[in-house]
Amino acid sequence: MKKHLFPLFLLLLGANANAQQDLFALVGKETPNITFNDFRVIDAANGVSGEKIFTADSSAKVFSQARNGSVTEDKNTYNNSQAVNMATLAYDSFNNNLVYMPMFSSNIYVLNAKTKEITLVENNVARVTSCDINSHITRMATGYDGNIYAINNAGTQFLQISRKGNQYTVNDLGIIKDDASNGKNSFTIMETGFGGDMIADADNNFYVFSAAGNVFKVSTKELKAKFVGKISGIPENYSVNGSAVNSKGKVVIASAKGAALYEVDLNTLQAKQMAGEQNLHIYDLASKYFANDKAVSNNVFANLDIYPTRVDEHFINVNVNDKKIKGNIKMNIFDLSGKNVMKQNLSVKDGSLSQQVYLKSLVTGAYLVSITDESGKILLNKKILVSE
Hints:
Blueprint: H1 6-11, E1 22-28, E2 36-43, E3 48-55, E4 61-64, E5 69-71, E6 90-92, E7 97-100, E8 108-112, E9 117-121, E10 137-142, E11 148-152, E12 158-164, E13 167-172, E14 177-178, H2 190-193, E15 197-200, E16 206-209, E17 214-219, E18 224-230, E19 242-245, E20 251-254, E21 262-264, E22 271-273, E23 281-286, E24 298-299, E25 304-307, E26 310-311, E27 315-321, E28 327-334, E29 340-348, E30 352-358, E31 365-372, E32 378-386
Parallel strand pairs: 4-9, 14-18, 26-32
Antiparallel strand pairs: 1-2, 1-23, 2-3, 4-5, 6-7, 7-8, 8-9, 10-11, 11-12, 12-13, 15-16, 16-17, 17-18, 19-20, 20-21, 21-22, 24-32, 25-27, 27-30, 28-29, 28-31, 31-32
């Protein structure tokens, strides 16, 4: 992170070290080929599988955004919510949604992890054909700005999936090219750069983990992929097919070949085998965490909170119901550069407060809301996403 973020770091030193570490996994059946089995939760602390959210045999309730109504899909095609070939998954923590795409299709699916309802987002932006391996969408992650991003094998399409209200839009951000320094470690060549998965960092850059174990940093501004290095500490034939950040800031990687999970230090690219599941066929991983992110939620008092975290009407609600919190509290809002863009004093009476706060002229983007008591002690740090 940049030096000018240092004041923001000081605010976040009390971050909750015991934050939930659950990952979401796209799991396949025990076959040599890619065959979708289920989406499930994995506890990243011990590598153990949990709830199966949606499976190949689940009853799918699909709502088409384009047709504004429910649809019945043909399960024998590539264009359905339970397609055999799938290799992308992202988690939208603001809405508790899993976002994914079948490998041979341009369809985007949004699965509500709680209700199990699915929204089909048809789009003409993704140019995917079943016979062209270059066009297959194999990497997907949620960016720090709250949008979903996806990249095809050859980097010729960099998709941004945005949500406003209940409508999703898809934009093609352009072609990602190799940085001049990459040499033989090319992002756009099958042997070194294809497949795998990607994660996002707090500066809205992306790290693509190719199936070959190579790591590339993708700049969203320059649309270039720079070779960072190759993961060490994994078996020679390990195929890296899933990657996601855990609450410790480490990257968890997984393989479609039925191997163990590994935890990777993004700075050194050194991998360490994890305990727990040793033979899952994982095609993709997702989580709510970001690399290099200090703006994690830190709620010291369980009865102090703000909502919503995804703000589309320029209001947030501050609720306090804790007699340990007394007198005046201060709310500061910081942008991603660490600049204090808004201040407001709030008054707590008898441990209670319920107040709606107008966010004035905050533009679309991610912000950190920090609430402190009169002495300056941090009571809560929480990230919000403002959309117009």
